[in-house]
Amino acid sequence: MADSNISVFPLHRRRKLVESIARDLESKNEEDANAFWRSTVKTILIQLSESGIAPGLAEQEIRTLLRAVLGDIAARSAKLGR
């Protein structure tokens, strides 16, 4: 299958998605958080692939999503004075 030129609404701009993942990650210990992240990424990559998104673009979306999630965690932590 050839790479697609389809673009998606950027994952990192989906505030509910970013905040939900961030909260879930914060509530887990390191090992469980890693497993949760891997599972989440796998699900999202499958969804993007089924939507016709090229693998390279899908991986880029995951990288920017991770930065947004980590930024959300950092912002919440700073607000709480941790």
Can you put this structure into words, describing what you see?
InterPro entries: DUF6074. The protein is an all-alpha fold and 82 residues long. It has one domain. It contains three helices and no strands. The protein has helices at residues 15-26, 30-50, 55-80. The protein is globular, with a radius of gyration of 14 Å. The protein starts with 14 loop residues before the first helix and ends with a helix. The mean pLDDT is 91.
Number of beta strands: 0
Uncertain regions: pLDDT < 50 for 5+ in a row? none
Helix content: over 70%
Number of structurally distinct domains: 1
Structural class: mainly alpha
What is the N-to-C succession of helices and strands? HHH
Report the mean per-residue pLDDT as an integer. 91
State the end-to-end CA separation.
48 Å
How much of the sequence lies in strands comes to under 5%
Main sheet specs: none
SS element count, helices? 3
**Shape type:** globular
The rounded Rg comes to 14 Å
What is this entry, summarized?
The protein is an all-alpha fold and about 80 residues long.
Q: What's the layout of helices and strands?
A:
Blueprint: H1 15-26, H2 30-50, H3 55-80
Pfam families: DUF6074
